[in-house]
Design brief:
Helices cover 33% and strands 27% of the residues. By secondary structure, the protein is an alpha+beta fold. The longest helix is centred in the N-terminal third of the chain and has 40 residues. The N terminus is likely disordered.
Length: 392
């Protein structure tokens, strides 16, 4: 009796052999699956998969780095969507982004800007962080990292060079405001970065700098404002210059804390219903002004717009970026992540900032080398002048 034949003779007639049944089942399953994937992906999506398979099994260089090719391809794919706010992150950048959004990261504890040609301008230093212990001061310019110059276009690489593994050392070459050069040796460590910092200005005006809207930022901001109110603050300046935005839930908590009863945020997802967040009656009952610049993004400019809309707060600084889409960062199986714009958002009244940004009541730029919140901060002075004018 032959077992490995396509058909076998049984008492009731001819029947397919077992292995042929399995083969037909697999082929039919693949055919159905291919049809499903075709419906889901379309020809363009299948072409991406096809290209990867061809590169893996037909490309002449068998040891080609397909992971690097995929990273480049995904980056180009998201860029091809034409949305400046969507992005692709490879494994390392995805991990670093998650750390930053938790307001914990491995580094030296500084905030920098790119406005100085000589290197990175230090805007703030976290108290008791590695940089603070090494003597780095706001206003210093980092011109080299471990002897490698970061002047000019190399500034874009500066932050990556400063980061590293916890416990390792990094030498920063600094140019002080007086023009004197010196070095600071910092030991990298896990740094908890408080999102907000505050101080009392002359005339009983409280000043709060909010760096981001990531995890814990609402609590940090409220703590600083409450402390200033207890110290006798009679007015408040909220500084969101250089603030990249963050999480909607943190923005909503800050809006609810600051503003009186009414609509404060409108969210319009692609796959869900439009929703309007309302603030309750509890609020910070003080005159307020807001500071913004061209690097105030997303939740930062929405906060400024809503403070103006709900509380009549004047705004000083520069025209903002004009962002009006929120993103969700989706983890990918290669360890990276893709951030896609999935919803539009507006102020409580429904006003969108897309393409127009936020025009300040007093529009002016900082002089080169000025430190935010420092004596040469002309934007802060303009905000104080607006508060005084409104009070008068």
């Amino acid at each position: 009796m032959e077992e490995q034949t396509v058909y076998t003779r049984r008492r009731h007639g001819w029947r397919l052999a077992g292995w042929v049944k399995i083969l037909i089942t697999v082929v039919l399953t693949l055919a159905v699956s291919a049809g499903v994937w075709c419906l889901l992906l379309g020809k363009s999506g299948l072409a991406l998969v096809q290209t990867y398979l061809l590169a893996r099994f037909a490309f002449v260089e068998a040891d080609a780095d397909l992971g690097r090719a995929v990273d480049a391809g995904l980056d180009a794919f998201v860029d091809g969507l034409g949305d400046r706010w969507s992005y692709y992150l490879d494994r390392e950048r995805y991990q670093a982004t998650n750390e930053r959004r938790a307001n914990n990261y491995v580094g030296v504890g500084i905030t920098v800007t790119y406005e100085r040609e000589e290197g990175l301008l230090v805007q703030s230093v976290i108290r008791d962080g590695p940089a603070d212990k090494a003597g780095v001061l706001p206003g210093d310019v980092i011109t080299a990292v471990d002897g490698r110059s970061i002047a000019g276009d190399a500034r874009e690489e500066g932050s990556d060079l400063i980061r590293g593994e916890s416990g390792t050392k990094v030498t920063l070459t600094l140019l002080g405001p007086d023009g004197a050069a010196r070095e600071a040796v910092c030991t990298r460590a896990t740094v908890h970065s408080p999102s907000a910092s505050g101080k009392m200005l002359e005339g009983n005006v409280g000043y709060v700098k909010l760096d981001n809207f990531y995890s814990g930022s609402a609590g940090s901001f409220q703590q600083e404002v409450d402390a200033l109110v207890e110290q006798g603050a009679q007015a408040l300046v909220v500084d969101v210059r250089g603030n990249p935005g963050g999480y909607i839930v943190e923005l909503e908590r800050i809006l609810d804390y600051l503003l009186p009863e009414g609509p404060v945020f409108t969210h319009k997802p692609r796959w869900w219903f439009e929703s309007v967040t309302r603030s309750d009656a509890g609020c910070v009952d003080l005159p307020m002004a807001v500071l913004v610049n061209k690097d105030s993004y997303s939740a930062a400019e929405l906060l400024a717009a809503q403070l103006r809309e709900s509380a009549g707060a004047p705004i000083a600084g520069e025209l903002t970026s004009g962002k009006g889409y929120s993103q969700i960062t989706f983890p990918l199986i290669n360890g990276g992540g893709v951030g896609l714009s999935t919803a539009a958002y507006c102020t409580g009244s429904g006003h969108s900032l897309i393409g127009e940004g936020l025009t300040p009541d007093a529009e002016l730029s900082l002089p080169e080398g000025a430190v935010l919140g420092g004596e040469d901060d002309v934007q802060l002075q303009a905000a104080l002048d607006l508060l005084a004018a409104n009070a008068g």
